[in-house]
């Protein structure tokens, strides 16, 4: 299930309420009032940070918004646990952290390490296609290890979807979108740590939303993720000059 949020405006003023459209698999399912913040990003200069505020139209949109919130909380918890509750550094590049998460999920479910990190194997179209195919097979065989309330959003978070619009083509992923919104990584440094404010927000607002079983699954995935993070950090320290 692909979720996409579009802002109905050419520009956005910081913290300005705006009308937003929520799409599920390219079908409009809800209109919402959103709080929009224009923030600087590493790739396209700026991106819209969207906080959903109020549902204007009911129906399927309620479920979509619930799923979006759950995805966000999962990403928050993963970043929190994988960084030892914010004590350790993370790569600032969203695609790098995404592939660390993908590798960790695949290892936790299958019991075997098999997915290369982004810095090891690159991230071209063929690699993305292969990774999507491999992880889909892993979920088909071992997905029942996770309860459905966690399995469905995690499967969405590790999937990269090909998008084409007005001649532009790219791969889109909801984990990366949430990563930018939650972590606000710097564009001038290759590594960063979660801010004190972010850590407190996650401890207060995200972690308490999960039951003990779910937290155990998320902690286990984050534990698998730590070695991939460290491997990428070593590569960054050796080869990156920023």
Automatic annotation (TrEMBL):
This is Uncharacterized protein. It comes from Candidatus Azambacteria bacterium RIFCSPLOWO2_02_FULL_46_11.
